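User: Predict the complex.
Assistant: Input components as received:
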Amino acid sequence: GEDVEQSLFLSVREGDSSVINCTYTDSSSTYLYWYKQEPGAGLQLLTYIFSNMDMKQDQRLTVLLNKKDKHLSLRIADTQTGDSAIYFCAESMPIGGSARQLTFGSGTQLTVLP
Amino acid sequence: DAGVIQSPRHEVTEMGQEVTLRCKPISGHDYLFWYRQTMMRGLELLIYFNNNVPIDDSGMPEDRFSAKMPNASFSTLKIQPSEPRDSAVYFCASKIFGAGVTEAFFGQGTRLTVV
C-alpha cells in the first residue's frame, strides 16, 4: 500500500532548530511536499523538492531527501513561536495517465516553547 | 482570486440529520478534492473530481456519503444520515493539472460536529 508516515508530535525551544521526519513508500513519486496547517486554517504549501534532488534550502527551511531510504526531512532553523503548527509531508502519486494526486502523512504537531 | 471557498465554516447538527458541505474551487482549476481530517485518522482523501467528473471515490467511508460537482465552480459533499463519528474537519482543495509542481490549494475547512 501507499503510506506516508510521520511522528505525531515535536516540541522545541524558541531559537533551536526543528527537524520533522517523514517516510514514504512510492518510489515513483516525482515531487515531495511539505504543507503547513495553522490552527483553524487549511493547509498551505510550504516547500517542495523534486525527487532527483538531495537537498533544497529556502531561507530558514532545509529539505533533505534520501531517495534510497525513502526518507524526507524538513529542518526549520531558528524556530519561532509562529512556526507552531501541524506540518504535513505529502508525496505525489500517479492516478492514471500522467495525472498525479497528493497522499498526505498524518501530520506532525510542532510546538515551540518560549 | 479569493482562493478555495468552503461553507459553512462550522456546522453543528443532530445525529440523523442531513448535512451538506459546499466548496467553490479556484477558477480554472480542473481538479477538486475532498479531504476529511480527524485526530485519529489524520488527513484522508475522500473523493476527487477531474473536469467535474468523479474519478476515485474509494475513500468515501460509507454510502451515507455522496459528492457532486454539477459545474466547474461548485461541489457538494453530503452526509445523510449523519452520525457522531462523522465529526471532523472537511477540506476541499483544487489544483490545475500539470506535469510539474502544481500546488493543491486548500479551503479553510468546515468543522462538522454531529451530536
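The radius of gyration of chain B is 14 Å.
Let me know if you want any component modeled separately.
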